[in-house]
Amino acid sequence: MVESKRLLIVVNVDWFFLSHRLPVALAALEAGYEVHVATLLTQGRARLQAYGFIVHELQIERSSSGAWSLLKLFVAFMRLLWLVRPDVLHLVTIKPVLIGGLAARLSPVKGVVYAISGLGHVFVEEGWSYCIRRWCIGIWYRFALGARNKRIIFQNSDDRSVIEASIRLRDAQINLIPGSGVDLTHYRYSALPEGEAVVLMAARLLGTKGVREFVAAAQILRSQGYAARFWLFGDIDTGNPASIEAGEIESWKQQGVVEVLGHSTDIAAIMAKVQVVVLPSYREGLPKVLIEAAACGRAVVTTDVPGCRDAIEAGVTGLLVPPKDAYRLVEAIRQLLENRAKCEAMGQAGRKRAEQIFNVTNVVTAHLALYRALGAVR
């Protein structure tokens, strides 16, 4: 009997794994891999184990970058990698890539997939201190991505350019995969609803997601007499330094201009009730909510920044605006609210784009091909 190959997927937190990497891991199980998942566990352990994964808890403190915290995480990675001895190690999100990548160079790991799913708030913030930190992180990437048998997944070409400024990569080592993909059988196309228009933003409540710009745009549009409703779905993320304080969110609720509705487990059902989807983020890998909006046939307004502009075809499936500019955001939202036919046309084009580019089946197939290629090297 041939022994199953071991796949170890490391992600910063369990809910991110479940929302962004579950289809790939399930496909690997079906393909015969022994799948291990290492992550910070919140409430996902039982669900992960029910799927058949071998679960390892890693204390990945996303908001902490102190030397002691990083050293503890490095030691935990070393123990994990020597315990599991994976044929393929798949590192997802920033700390797993940077810390796990270093540990992999000193461990019995046969092949490494580095998934660069965005570069984080350090590459968004301005000021000389952040310039220095970006330079230091660039050097860190040079060492972390040093495995000989490797593949690096980028979600957009801008992130690839940033990393290639620090490390020389061969084309054969690079794969451009458009995000996590979207399940087209769950996120189905639907006609625009009748009645009062609804504008949706669904994201973690972070300043860098452009939440404040969305709220400001809603306030301006209401002051101009627009009767549309503005829905904000998402939770505070205390593990992220850009998280918005509860007091500020409570003040939005009191004002009543934006309906702050918390986390939802069924964004597809919500999409069916809205006319326009907005994400004024400062930078992304490739935002899942925008490809979900495309699959559901919804016109999008987003920012002309890495990741966001890659998720749409500007002028065809949605509109681009500058980041951190509530007034330009207002103009774009107003343009779509006043032109139902344009919304419908953009939604139909978005669905076609989702079918051609963002189908989760294609994303899963691409990942399994990488696993097979790395596992074949001895």
Overall, the morphology is globular
How many helical elements?
14
Q: Distance between the terminal alpha carbons, to the nearest Å?
A: 20 Å
- Largest sheet: number of strands, sense, barrel closure: 7 strands, parallel
Computed over alpha carbons, the radius of gyration is 21 Å
Task: Write up this protein.
- This protein has 378 residues and is an alpha/beta fold.
- It folds into two domains: 6-181 and 359-375, Rossmann fold; 198-358, Glycogen Phosphorylase B (Rossmann fold, 3-Layer(aba) Sandwich).
- It has 14 helices and 13 strands.
- The strands form two sheets. A seven-stranded parallel beta sheet has the order 3-2-1-4-5-6-7, sandwiched between helices. It has a six-stranded parallel beta sheet with strand order 10-9-8-11-12-13, sandwiched between helices.
- The mean pLDDT is 89.
Which key phrases capture this entry?
Rossmann fold, 14 helices, globular, 6-stranded parallel β-sheet, 2 domains, 7-stranded parallel β-sheet, single chain, 378 residues, alpha/beta
